[in-house]
Design brief:
With 322 residues, this protein is α/β, with parallel strands linked by helices. Helix content is 41%, strand content 19%. It is globular.
């Protein structure tokens, strides 16, 4: 979900809001760990590693990326929630953590109660891609075809309750199409079967599918962001046809609840300074991401909105993980 303009501060203003000098001798005095709930190379892992060097410069201490994959990112979240609230352990989370709040019947952490949102980092949109054999050339064509072939179209995802799954559910709920879910263990096997024509369509990260779109092996119909992407400006958004539709991955840093405000402000400032650096912004944009800046309050508002949005989709879809 893109951040409404009122939630975003220009990086230079964000820098002014949280001055560093007041806290320089207090925090930090040792390296900081950022726990990532996915393997190296995952979107959130890439995002944190891109900003880590600049953050380390600002903080005067190393930011160490600590990968703790498993349970849809929940292992890292639980470890972070139980860590001392001193600012030295952060959680690098996003959409999966927001979805987990309503997807799992039992969860050992509450994203809104057990964490202090520290800083937004960026968003990455997904594309609706179809096998070229499907006659649809637009999202409108696609929905019309799906309605005239009720229950015949299949869609690949990276698993039940994943962002691609619930994005497809959002479209199903908004358009009343009937399609069949086919879950896979990761993006590569899902894309392979889509390219082979074994499934009809998929919502996938813009980075993972653009090479296949450019080669003609897949056809992109729309992007799920609120506005068009600079990477594929000719591709319309789903919202242009179905107002209000918005989905995608997002990344943010969280600290355990109760973390001192000066530590939260210091890390927030380090993130904003990193996002202000042209070389970091350029790399984010090259990765298909939209860089974000803002205050801890912006991050809190964004997180609450995402948890609420996905809770509605999870409930309507009936998705559940025990």
């Amino acid at each position: 979900m893109a951040v409404p303009p009122r939630f975003i501060l220009p990086a230079a203003l964000a820098v002014a809001v949280f001055p560093i000098a007041l806290h320089a001798q207090i925090f930090p005095t040792k390296p900081i760990r950022a726990l990532v709930g996915f393997t190296p190379g995952a979107g959130v892992d890439i995002a944190v590693r891109l900003i880590a060097p600049k953050m380390s410069e600002t903080l005067g201490q190393s930011l160490i990326v600590d990968n703790r994959p498993g349970a849809g990112g929940n292992i890292a979240a639980e470890l972070s929630a139980r860590a001392p609230a001193d600012g030295y352990t952060l959680f690098a989370g996003g959409a999966p953590a927001a979805i987990s709040q309503s997807l799992y019947s039992k969860l050992a952490y509450d994203l809104l109660k057990d964490f202090e949102p520290v800083a937004l980092i960026g968003t990455v949109s997904t594309l609706l891609v179809v096998h070229p054999s499907l006659p649809a050339k637009s999202i409108k064509d696609f929905v019309a075809f799906a309605k005239s072939h009720k229950g015949e179209l299949t869609y690949a995802t990276t698993g039940a309750g994943s962002t691609p799954h619930l994005t497809a559910e959002m479209l199903r709920l908004q358009t009343s199409i009937q399609v069949l879910h086919v879950p896979y263990k990761g993006t590569p096997p899902a894309l392979n079967d889509l390219i082979a024509g074994n499934v009809s369509f998929m919502f996938a990260n813009i980075l993972s599918v653009m090479p296949h779109v450019n080669s003609g092996r897949l056809r992109a119909l729309a992007i799920t962001s609120a506005k068009r992407s600079a990477i594929v400006p000719s591709l319309p958004t789903v919202a242009e046809t179905y107002p209000g539709f918005e989905s995608g991955s997002w990344y943010a840093l969280f600290a355990p609840a109760g973390t001192p405000k000066d530590a939260v402000a210091r890390v927030n400032e380090a993130v904003n300074r990193a996002m202000q650096a042209p070389e970091v912004r350029d790399k984010f944009i090259a990765q298909g991401a939209e860089p974000l800046t803002g205050t801890p309050q912006d991050a809190t508002a964004y997180t609450r909105a995402e948890v609420t949005k996905w809770a509605k989709v999870v409930k309507a879809s009936g998705a559940r993980v025990e």
